[in-house]
Design goal:
PfkB_dom, binds adenosine-5'-diphosphate, 10 helices, nine-stranded mixed beta sheet, four-stranded mixed beta sheet, carbohydrate metabolism
């Protein structure tokens, strides 16, 4: 329920925000785009009319201040952002393979996002979250890993619903085994987990994409497990029911950020009424809207510029 003052519940997203350098015609040029899954989720929530805050660390450099400005411009609370005096904002260099898929190389040497320390966390902000969302990149190294663990603990103790999208970026991890171990090490803390089909295969080491494989990731405290399947929509699992919801046919030009848009739309719709998670018909409606937001995001280039507003999503659903 919304608070008695009518204020909407706050969704706090924790983790990295960085600059992607994306090749652009005539391919010797690159344009820089803001990126980072947790930041995308915060902006997705805010564009849809929800209340969002971002917690993370940026370099005290032009890129860092530009990224903080993008969050503010999109209505995201920036009181959880720290700036590191020494390290630079994280950078990713994107190359396009001949089959159209993207490959990433990262500047993390270490970058500012990895240097967030537990004592730098804005605990008051984290305690005011109704939903606390995070990924797994912040688990890769210290001190950010300890900051991640503390933020999660504080949010949980204060009663927040924990939402986890591992958002695997395999090249960033020392090895696939390390990625699997660390990602799964915080699995049973989350109330909601969203994985893509690629992550499901990676985490379970099973190529059979069926309900049994997905359910092998179930844990007893989980309220909702989601597997997103790109143009095939998503499947959902709760204690009492499971099923799938189709997405929409669109001319997809760039799928970057589709999963973050989906997650933002999901969290924005459940933050003030978590009973949705126990009612299949209502949950299916919520997932239809989340699929619509994911689909819309694929129709434009880049992640943040493609995240829909509430009215864009509603008029897409009316057409
Ligand atoms: P991720 O970006 O995390 O890999 P997906 O690619 O599965 O996640 O996309 C998330 C959601 O976005 C999907 O469940 C679907 O609703 C929507 N989506 C993604 N790609 C397409 C597409 N090509 N056509 C329509 N909807 C899509």
């Amino acid at each position: 329920m919304a608070s008695s003052t009518g204020e909407k519940g706050l969704i706090v997203s924790f983790g990295e925000m960085l600059i992607d350098f994306v090749p652009t015609p005539p391919w010797t040029l690159a344009r820089h785009c803001p990126g980072g899954a947790p930041a995308n989720v915060a902006i997705a929530v805010s564009r849809l009319g929800g209340r969002a805050a971002f917690v993370g660390k940026l370099g005290d450099d032009d890129f860092g201040h530009m990224l903080a400005g993008i969050l503010r411009k999109n209505g995201v609370d920036d009181q959880g952002i720290n700036f590191d005096k020494g390290a630079r904002t994280a950078l990713a260099f994107v190359t396009l393979r001949s089959d159209g898929e993207r490959e990433f190389m990262f500047y993390r040497n270490p970058s500012a996002d990895m240097l967030l320390r537990p004592n730098e966390l804005n605990l008051e902000l984290i305690r005011s979250a109704k939903v606390f969302h995070y990924g797994s990149i912040s688990l890769i190294t210290e001190p950010c890993r300890s900051a991640h663990m503390k933020a999660m603990e504080v949010a949980k103790e204060a009663g927040a619903l924990l939402s986890y999208d591992p958002n695997l970026r395999e090249p960033l991890w020392p090895s696939p085994e390390e990625a699997r171990t660390q990602i799964l090490s915080i699995w049973d803390k989350a109330d909601i987990i969203k994985v893509s089909d690629v992550e499901l295969e990676f985490l379970t080491e099973n190529k059979t994409m069926d309900d049994k494989t997905a359910m092998s990731l179930w844990h007893p405290n989980l309220k909702l497990l989601l597997v997103t399947l790109g143009e095939k929509g998503c499947t959902y699992f709760t204690k009492n029911f499971h099923g799938s919801v189709e997405t929409f046919l669109v001319d997809a030009v760039d799928t970057t950020g589709a999963g973050d848009s989906f997650v933002g739309a999901l969290l924005k719709q459940i933050v003030d009424d978590q009973s949705v998670l126990e009612d299949e018909a209502r949950l299916r409606k919520v997932l239809r809207f989340a699929n619509a937001c994911g689909a819309i995001t694929t129709t434009k280039k880049g992640a943040i510029p493609a995240l829909p507003t509430d009215s864009e999503a509603l008029s897409f659903l009316k057409d």
